Amino acid sequence: MKITLTPIGTAKNKEQKHFGGWKDVATDLVIDEKYRDALAGLEDYSHLIVIYWMHDVKTCDIRHVPQGKVGEVPEVGIFACRCPQRPNPIGVSTVEIIGIENAVVRVAGLDVIDNTPILDIKPYTPQYDATTDAKVPDWVNKLDY
């Protein structure tokens, strides 16, 4: 089966390569003009979920040591970590909305480099997106965010 995706916009920031510390990075989601009206009502939310294509990722190993922390965290399967190297380089991040003007949504904390294609955005809704009983392995607390 072949799947074709069409970006709804592009992420614009000054980042080319970056590792950790994304919470203070501001990014403009420049939404294609034909989707401008789809932003109506988004201003009533504080956060959104951004789905994007990690266009700069070139390789994917089935096993990986998260953040290269050999000896600190275990090697795990690619589906047990959040690294960008994926069979399909689709990224998903929850971010804070800083502001919306025309067809540009400014967000904080999006872990993307400049010109990353945006596939979709969805409002963050605690009833759907939050869980109070999530379990994660202890090594996750050793990662940088």
What's the end-to-end separation, in Å? 35 Å
Strand order of the largest sheet: 1-2-7-6-3-8
Q: Tell me what portion of residues adopts beta-strand conformation.
A: 25-35%
The CATH architecture of the largest domain is: Beta Barrel
What percent of residues adopt helix (DSSP H or I)?
under 10%
Biggest sheet overview: 6 strands, antiparallel, barrel
- Under CATH, the topology of the largest domain can be stated as Elongation Factor Tu (Ef-tu), domain 3
Per DSSP E runs of 2 or more residues, the count of β-strands stands at 8
Give the CA-based shape: globular
Q: Could you name the key traits of this structure?
A:
six-stranded antiparallel beta barrel, 145 residues, Elongation Factor Tu (Ef-tu), domain 3, 8 strands, globular, two-stranded antiparallel sheet, mainly beta, 2 domains, 31% strand, 1 helix
